[in-house]
Amino acid sequence: MSSRIVLVLAVLLVIALSALLVLELTTGYFSGYNSQPAPVRSSRPTKPPAEEPKARSALCGTVDSRCNATALVDVSDCNPVTAEHRLESLLASPLSRGDCPQAMQRLASRCPPPCTIDPASTRIIAAKVEITRKEPGPGGTCQFEGRRTIEISGSCYR
Prior knowledge:
Mean pLDDT: 83
Number of domains: 2
Strand content: 25-35%
Shape: elongated
Helix content: 25-40%
Number of strands: 5
Radius of gyration: 38 Å
Distance between the termini: 85 Å
Oligomer: single chain
Structural class: alpha+beta
Largest sheet: 5 strands, antiparallel
């Protein structure tokens, strides 16, 4: 019977030592390894806490505008593929053609006062170039007109 008591006490001792080992390894309770040092007190006066950074400006709403960029080309051999390539290159930056420069100004003016448009929020979506064959030009050349619809949107902030 005494050997059983010794065995039970040995098991309890192993469990207790295991618990202490886990406590030491996870928290540094006995050795102070993971403890935080005491805060250093300074005799100098401290600065008041800095103001928190201002939150992002308030969103006033979103605005959108639409415009058409157009270009006209003369093609001597009346090849529509040649016309398509030339019109695509002319309408590659469509905001400078047709009524698109005014559309950007209209977009900014649609923000309610005192809000202004955030240039970083401006989104420009350009449709595919639509090509139309016009009446023959001077000297028997063929004229092609290219039109690209542009949708512009942006966010207004206070």
